[in-house]
Amino acid sequence: MKKLVIVMGLMLAAGILTPLYAQEQAAGGGALKSAEALKWAIATAGFALGIAAAGGALGQGRAVASATEAIARNPGAADQIRGVTILGLVLIESLVLYVLLISLFIFIVPNRLF
Fold this sequence. Notes:
F1FO ATP Synthase; 3 helices; mainly alpha
């Protein structure tokens, strides 16, 4: 519970402090503005994908561990447990792939805008 409160507090602080970086660039900085946008797009995409991959790996690890334990307790239901586990793993992995697509979108859009 303590970890959850710390993580939620950090997420809230990140959301509140994000507008600090949304200030206007000084006049005459067209190329610099594009370079800044590209730099932040790369950083944002990298962090989002890293967090999603870490969360997906933790979720998949827990799912496989629980499925293995369930099969060990009841070997007769192994086929049903295996099917549900594979479906769950596919859904978890699809969330990571969605973040990959969004990260690519975040990376591509600033190049098109400036």
